[in-house]
Amino acid sequence: MDRAARAALLLAFGLAACAGPRFHSVGSAPPPTRAELMRSLLPANVRVNVLVEGEVRRTASGVVIQNGQGAERELVVSHVLTNAHVVLARAGELPRFVVLVDGEGGSTQEFEGEVVAVGDVEGDDLAVLAIEGIALPCAPLSDDSAVNVGDDVLAVAAPFGRSLSVSRGIVSQIDYDAGSPRRPLLLKTDASIGYGSSGGGLYSASNGALLGVLAGYRTAAVSFLVGEERLTFDVPMPGETFAAPAARVRAFLGAHGLAALRCG
Q: Could you tell me if 195 and 231 are in contact, meaning their C-beta atoms sit under 8 angstroms apart?
């Protein structure tokens, strides 16, 4: 091989080396697919039943934000975020809260939930339940400002008290704190939810971080006549789902002495 051919060969080899390998290095794993990411979020989400006199009166959803040792080191406790309007007792009620943890193959475990923090429905519509005896997988909160209009999101909840379901959408609107730039106060998404989804998780579709807690949706009253009787239903409006963002969750936890709660 003459000198010119040898130089051309070395140049070609150098360019190929600079381009880097086109395969994953030994020991690395490919990024999860969207379906794999969706499935990975499910274990940190639970269902919540509100019982009055032994009967289920309301159903809701929740997100596990911390697990570990309780005040007594032998005691394992998991903390679940949900909404204040879920846990606040109505007139004449003495509610109990049962947290349902769904496993593989349709199995379900039930745990008694104790309310350890509750906010104002008109303000911070958030609450925390503590359940003893199990360390559940938990969802890490995103950074306060790690959300933008147009971001892809996944909503995980248990509408109508049935098993957990996943829907997808985008962040369609963000309301910010006027006194603190880039601190979100409210998120709106077009991810669809239904009755019983309150307290579910809104996650980043790119990394699975918990962006916020589902708080409700806007409805439209639809009525029609059946014979001489008028029936009216509240129907969820598409694109009008709301969530309390991570920044608001952190502020709520801090105000109730729970700032130390974190996943990991």
A: no
- pLDDT for position 217: 63
Of the candidate ranges 22-26, 34-38, 193-197, the one whose mean pLDDT is the lowest: 22-26
> Structure pTM?
0.80
pLDDT of residue 237: 57
